[in-house]
Write a structure and sequence with these properties.
The protein is mostly beta strands. The chain is built from no helices and 11 strands. The strands form 2 sheets. Strands 2, 4, 5, 6, 9, 10 and 11 form a 7-stranded mixed β-sheet that branches.
Length: 113
């Protein structure tokens, strides 16, 4: 059974930083591409970042240069380091395994102006 558990969200001021974590179980983590998405109220869910099993990364245009996705295969965990946060980054952030269509429960990130 595939399980994903996000953590690390919270309330931060504009310009601040947060680090999200997504611990997984039930899969051979190192084999799979992992991704972070987010959904703000009234908006569609959007891709934030993706990391391949070889470490290649892709970022959404709105977060390029500010967010960094990484993975620790020994811990079966993917991370999202978010820097220079802006109010428009406020959303629920979800961890995702594209190959399974599996999603975590999400973690709220709120950036105050």
């Amino acid at each position: 059974q595939v399980q994903l558990a996000e953590s690390g969200g919270g309330l931060v001021q504009t310009g601040g930083s947060l680090r999200l974590s997504c611990a997984t179980s039930g899969i051979s983590f190192r084999v799979y591409t992992m991704a972070w998405h987010r959904q703000a109220p009234g908006k569609e869910r959007e891709l934030v970042a993706r990391i391949g099993n070889g470490g290649s990364t892709t970022y959404g245009d709105s977060v390029k240069g500010r967010f960094i996705i990484s993975r620790d295969n020994a811990k079966s965990t993917v991370y999202l380091q978010m820097n220079d946060l802006k109010p428009e980054d406020t959303a629920v952030y979800y961890c995702n395994i594209p190959a399974f269509g599996a999603w975590g429960q999400g973690t709220q990130v709120t950036v105050s102006s």
